[in-house]
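Much of what follows relies on a compact textual record of a protein's fold. Think of the row as the fold of the chain written in a discrete alphabet. An example makes this concrete, so a full record is given next.


***
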Amino acid sequence: MYYREFGERGDQPLVILHGLFGMSDNWHSIARNIAEEGYHVLVPDQRNHGRSGHSNIHNYPAMVDDLLEFLDARELEQTCLLGHSMGGKTSMQFAVDYPERVQKLIVADMSPALSERGDIHSGIIDTLLQLDLSSFDGRQEVAGAMKERISNARLRHFLQKNLYWKDRGSLGWRVNLEAISENLNEVFKAVETAGPFEKPVLFIRGGRSDYVQDEDIALIEKLFPQAKIRTLPKASHWLHAEDPDGFTAEVLYFLSL
């Protein structure tokens, strides 16, 4: 797994997991700011994303195994975990599977419940797959073509970050769209657990997002009895990008407790 690293080894470790279509680069500023407060922050690219390897398998058991191998390779017996969206569900599943390896858990705008969002993301993937990247001369041309079917400018900019030059004249997608399309239902499955995670947990949700709804709170409290829920009122699902100061303040306060 490709990863970015911030802060000093030997400081309190924190591993950050990005969401669907994301990558470690999206967390550069927040990771750097957290590291400046005395944390050793590691931000891997999850499988089929960023610069990490591609696989036909894309599900939470596989991503949990990836994280376990990542921690073992760096001899991190315990760490704090922060995950956003898909990364939040990976973090939740890891915490209930390996509670002895997690000190504290932070989940950014994701519920442990089954989600019904597959159709929306399937449409995004279809749009990206239908773009003939060989016919474009640059990223802005691709962004213009995306605008016809993806109206949200923030989402287009976020997706555009996945573009890279495979060679001097050929664009490609870093995210493995084909594998994610084939396994999309796996991304929206509920967290599976035989017992609760009893350590401190913070859920941070966007006030303009419906990814963590009030009816999910009972399940959150069942799986994570020590959970606290904080809301950033002006943020949507990409709360760490829309309110980075508020988000970072919540994370640092929780970690300091």
Strands lie at 3-6, 12-17, 39-44, 79-84, 102-108, 163-167, 170-173, 201-206, 227-232.
